[in-house]
Design goal:
It contains 3 helices and 9 strands; from the N terminus they run αβββαββββββα. With 191 residues, it is of the alpha+beta class. It has one domain (20-190). The strands form 2 sheets. A 7-stranded antiparallel beta sheet has the order 1-2-3-9-8-7-6, covered by helices on one side. The protein is globular and about 65 Å long. 27% of the residues are buried.
């Protein structure tokens, strides 16, 4: 039974299967940026405990069909981060609200926070000054996150000339794709 019992939060049917990262299909982000790399992902070993189940994975996207340019130059890599935490004993609502401006690097007052309607009980899209985007959703005892980051890399024998760099792409236009893929993930974790 996943419903409230003895004051425990309602998990709304969310479960972490044997391989929670496999549930992340990224169809919308794949169409907007690049498909996920089916061969590569990093996941922290899932935590399974009476009080909390948690999983996190990092999924690279296959930019340029996974092939690097043969010449020297800059290229952009994209990584999607997915986090799932199922709080089985205590309600995570207070912590969810408290951490709404916190990123992996701490609290950054320049991080923009936008409330997202009609997604879970509460949802926020965080846009950091570095350009990363993260969508966080609270639904009962479940806290889910989906983030996109881009990194600029150099390929070639010689290093880039000083000041010779490209701009990171703007990830803000991918908000709708993130919301769509979050809805997919939420459904997958309930089946």
């Amino acid at each position: 039974m996943d419903g409230p019992r003895d004051g425990a939060p309602d998990l709304h049917g969310y479960r972490l299967g044997q391989d929670p990262c496999a549930a992340v299909r990224l169809k919308s982000i794949g169409a907007a940026i690049a498909p996920r790399d089916p061969e590569s992902r990093f996941e922290a070993g899932p935590l399974r405990h009476d009080a909390l189940d948690r999983a996190q994975c990092y999924i690279p996207l296959l930019v340029g069909n996974g092939k690097r340019r043969p010449d020297e130059g800059w290229f952009v890599d994209y990584t999607v981060t997915v986090g799932v935490a199922l709080h089985k004993k205590t309600d995570p609502r207070a912590e969810f609200e408290a951490e709404r401006t916190a990123t992996d690097l701490g609290v950054d007052p320049e991080t923009e926070v936008e409330e997202v309607q009609e997604l879970g009980d509460k949802a926020y899209l965080l846009s950091s000054p570095s350009g990363e985007q993260e969508l966080r959703v609270l639904e009962g005892g479940a806290v889910l996150s989906l983030g996109i980051a881009a990194s600029l890399n150099w390929e070639g024998d010689k290093g880039p000339a000083p000041g010779d760099g490209e701009e990171l792409p703007d990830l803000a236009p991918h908000k709708a794709a993130m919301i769509s893929d979050m809805r997919d993930l939420m459904s997958a974790l309930k089946s």
